[in-house]
Design goal:
Elements (H helix, E strand, L loop, with lengths): L2 H19 L4 H89 L5 H28 L7 E3 L1 H15 L5 E7 L6 E3 L1 H18 L4 E10 L2 E7 L7 H4 L17 H11 L3 E6 L5 E8 L1 H4 L1
Parallel strand pairs: 2-4
Antiparallel strand pairs: 1-3, 4-5, 5-7, 6-7
Helix pairs in contact: 1-2, 2-3, 4-5, 5-7
């Protein structure tokens, strides 16, 4: 029972008792009723104020949630606009550079075959030309992947075998560092609609980053679990992490915290995941290292 209803009930009961008992003067009864009615009015006003405060608090929380979503969408639109502009520029530059680069690489190969035995200095120069051409060609491939990743070919994929493939590829790619791998897959995890080749590419990129960030004998964990109607694949390391000021910039093209990084690996991965209707998130761990999460819509959510 609300405050004012309870006060009215008490005052009515008290008045009835005093009238029936007949042992009390009329004036005290009137005073008592006045005090009880005043109490009821105050209780009613307090209850009304409490309801209003609760109502406005709910409205404020809803507005805060909506504002957060608007901000996230606005930031996503700005990021998409930047990515589109830079992607077009990257594609044009990549095509313009690739043709002369192919000529340089071809000329170096002709020289290596036709010049006969070369002295150590010339042989070293030719090797530098060829290796740098290969490196630049790989960089241009990243540019083109960033500018226009192919549309995903979606199909139902079981998560655990996909993670096993990624772990196998990662284990073969380690050089000069001892890393322990762990895999945690939620029991009964269903299939997810994705492009398995592209997801393996994204996870392999994230695993290599995690290995590079980890100390020797460190541990990198690959996990998969459901969250609401989505499936979340996590890559967790316990390395040096990323400065808080840099986390929001990790998916910006050409931003890198690596000495020899291109700043395109994570933006390309981000675009690939978004084309599948998912998200790629980065979060600092409470103690050390980072967690990168590939969030993909479940089959029910996509349907």
């Amino acid at each position: 029972m609300s405050g004012w209803r309870a006060a009215l009930a008490v005052s009515a009961a008290a008045a009835a008792y005093l009238v029936i008992s007949g042992g009390t003067e009329r004036r005290p009864i009137v005073e008592l009723l006045a005090w009880l009615l005043l109490t009821a009015a105050l209780a009613g006003a307090t209850a009304h104020e409490r309801r209003l405060r609760s109502h406005y608090q709910r409205i404020a929380e809803q507005l805060s949630t909506v504002y957060g979503k608007v901000q996230a969408n606005f930031e996503g639109m700005k990021r998409a606009e930047r990515l589109s502009s830079i992607g077009q520029l990257s594609a044009g530059l990549a095509h313009e550079i690739r043709n002369p680069l192919a000529s340089i690489s071809g000329a170096a190969a002709i020289l290596a075959r036709s010049s006969g035995p070369l002295d150590a200095t010339n042989a070293k120069c030719l090797e530098i030309i060829r290796s740098e051409c290969d490196r630049l060609n790989g960089l241009l491939t990243n540019f083109l992947s960033f500018a226009g990743p192919r549309p995903p070919r979606l199909r139902a994929v079981q998560i655990e075998p996909l993670l096993d493939n990624v772990l196998g590829l990662t284990a073969h790619g380690i050089r000069g560092k001892h890393i322990h791998f762990e895999k945690h897959v939620e029991d009964g995890l269903g299939a997810v609609e994705c492009d398995p080749e592209q997801i393996e590419q994204v996870l392999l990129n994230l695993m290599i980053n995690a290995i590079e960030a980890s100390p020797d004998n460190g541990t990198v964990t690959l996990s998969a679990a459901t969250r609401n109607s989505s499936i979340v694949i996590g890559v967790i390391d316990h390395g040096h992490g990323v400065a808080p000021a840099h986390i929001d910039r990790l998916f910006d093209p050409f931003f890198t915290t690596k000495e020899n990084g291109t700043g395109l690996g994570l933006p390309v991965a981000h675009q690939i995941v978004r084309q599948m209707g998912g998200e790629l998130l980065a979060q600092a761990n409470p103690t050390s290292g980072m967690t990168f999460s590939v969030v993909l819509p479940g089959r029910a959510a996509r349907a």
